[in-house]
Amino acid sequence: xxxxxxxxxxxxxxxxxxxxxxxxxxxxxxxxxxxxxxxxxxxxxxxxxxxxxxxxxxxxxxxxxxxxxxxxxxxxxxxxxxxxxxxxxxxxxxxxxxxxxxxxxxxxxxxxxxxxxxxxxxxxxxxxxxxxxxxxxx
Length: 138
Hints:
Layout: H1 2-6, E1 12-18, H2 24-38, E2 43-48, E3 50-52, H3 53-63, H4 76-79, E4 84-86, H5 89-106, E5 111-114, H6 119-124
Parallel strand pairs: 1-2, 2-5
Antiparallel strand pairs: 3-4
Helix pairs in contact: 2-5
């Protein structure tokens, strides 16, 4: 990433899937600190776990039903109409809020996007202007 930035290429990063593991604030805070002080990014996109039932079944077959990915996931019909299980709206907002605050503290002008998120999450974070600013788009 550093070599690409030094060569003049725009560099973006995707932090996904974000999983609310034990001590996630510390773990992701340290990760973001290292990333953002080492690489001059043009954009960073954050994304929580969003998983279809067959993929979730594979995860649970491999890791067991009690695992860091599955533990807090809500059934797809409770959180979304696209058939994917996600963490609760409140939990996603809390996670993104902490991470966005960390990013803004380190690189205040860095463009931040959210991947596959509802408009209501953007609104709750005061990020409506960021709708559509993911790494899939130029």
